[in-house]
């Protein structure tokens, strides 16, 4: 609710213009009632209630499915209206919480509200340039209905992620009219459970460029990457062209080689998109879009005419890779230009407003959350000092398990 309210306020959006709203999450507290239905409190008037969309759930992938649903809706011949000032809103929101142990520090929380409409500053240059991979896997799941915490097979989940990345990238490459490589992309955003996996993923895509290249394409590929020495070429041949890809997912030597090889390019093409994920921790369905927000929030107008590759992954599993392009909008409304979105986001200043707490305080808060999880008939005792102005917070849960929220002034 906080993200949607701020989106409407900062960009002067009339609720009457929003005809679809969909939520991507895996953190719904109720097994029946959607998060979207709570957000409808922002649209109390009956004339605002004709709004398609609902929650979409599959681990960290739900928001991407919601995004595509919104884009398909905008471009559908069955959309109720074709006016240019009609919008779809997608909300990517999650809380990543882990039990005591090494995974706990990677947790986080976040919500990203995205406005979809025609003549957008980020758009598909070609709607065909997208690729998907779906598969059955038990790498990360939440079978315990009485607990926040997931069941995770960490090493297997990393393999699932990288395998899905390989498949999606190979499929996306095949949909371009001309062969492409990572060197041809301006920026990349990844689903970011933790930053080391993002580094591995970028290196893995470069690995795939060499693994998939025809023999006749190698010299031009070396030139694109600025590789001239025979020793490096020999290493690339050893790691990328001399063994099956499925045998390389746990090959640390190969991974370290390509991470080192691509370090400078990683900073140029990926570094900016890791700004919020590194500061906020894992935000599950919001993670990729926190990365995209980082990119816009740091680069602004520099993204005009630039190609942005995005990789989305959700355990279980579902994955997608697609491309956006930055552009100048034709209607010239200042709030919808890339540079002005950057200024409105004001990311460094917003992050500086956070209040630091100790690990002990954090653990105490987590213990309290578990104590009240699934309980009812109580008033929240959590201090609101750390809550930013304009954010919603849980005030109470009544004897019928109904949840009530207030907005901090």
UniProtKB/TrEMBL annotation:
Pathway: Metabolic intermediate biosynthesis; (R)-mevalonate biosynthesis; (R)-mevalonate from acetyl-CoA: step 2/3. Transmembrane segments: none annotated. It comes from Naegleria fowleri. CoA binds at residues 157, 196, 200. It catalyses: acetoacetyl-CoA + acetyl-CoA + H2O = (3S)-3-hydroxy-3-methylglutaryl-CoA + CoA + H(+). The active site is at residues 26, 60, 191. Pfam families: HMG_CoA_synt_C, HMG_CoA_synt_N. Keywords: Lipid biosynthesis, Lipid metabolism, Steroid biosynthesis, Steroid metabolism, Sterol biosynthesis, Sterol metabolism, Transferase. GO terms for molecular function: hydroxymethylglutaryl-CoA synthase activity. Catalyzes the condensation of acetyl-CoA with acetoacetyl-CoA to form HMG-CoA. It comes from the Eukaryota. This is Hydroxymethylglutaryl-CoA synthase. Residues 127-408 form the Hydroxymethylglutaryl-coenzyme A synthase C-terminal domain. The keyword Transmembrane does not apply. InterPro entries: HMG_CoA_synt_C_dom, HMG_CoA_synth_N, HMG_CoA_synthase_euk, Thiolase-like. Signal peptide: none annotated. Its EC number is 2.3.3.10. One of its GO terms (biological process) is farnesyl diphosphate biosynthetic process, mevalonate pathway. Residues 3-121 form the Hydroxymethylglutaryl-coenzyme A synthase N-terminal domain.
